[in-house]
Amino acid sequence: MTDLRETFWKRLEGINAGMLGTVDRLKLVPMSHYADPARDALWFIAAEGTDLVDQLRSGPVEAVHVIGDGGGKLWARIEGQLDLSQDRAKLDEIWNAVAAAWFEGGERDPDVRLLKLSLERAEVWTTTGGPGFLYQIAKARLTGEKPDLGEHFALTF
């Protein structure tokens, strides 16, 4: 894994949600994601009958997941193929109290749907965040130099 990929996955660890949608409709909805660096994937727990799940009935579609988290010091537009998954082991692994709050029947509720976003590319901005940001702005004002607020890079998975 390259340093930039490591930076991406490391910063993603502290971020729990973003806005997910398919490229053809670009109707983004808030969704919690579960990172899977080993598979270059993000997983989502969704519900039967939602627009997003309905769009996946005929197979994978191009999707985008947008993350903006100053505390996590990561901003990203992540693109890939979104598909329904039957991976029960993965569902068992990522199931938690937040997901349980949405489904009366728990993990085996008939409306639970597991989605997998197989990552293809991402445009990423990392920041220094908080005090580092303020320092860079103050330094720029004093020196006249542009502030160093982080990196901007593209990844291919």
From TrEMBL:
InterPro entries: Split_barrel_FMN-bd, Stress-Dev_Protein, YdaG_split_barrel_FMN-bd. Residues 5-148 form the General stress protein FMN-binding split barrel domain. SUPFAM superfamilies: FMN-binding split barrel (SSF50475). Pfam families: Pyrid_ox_like (PF16242). It comes from the Bacteria. This is General stress protein.
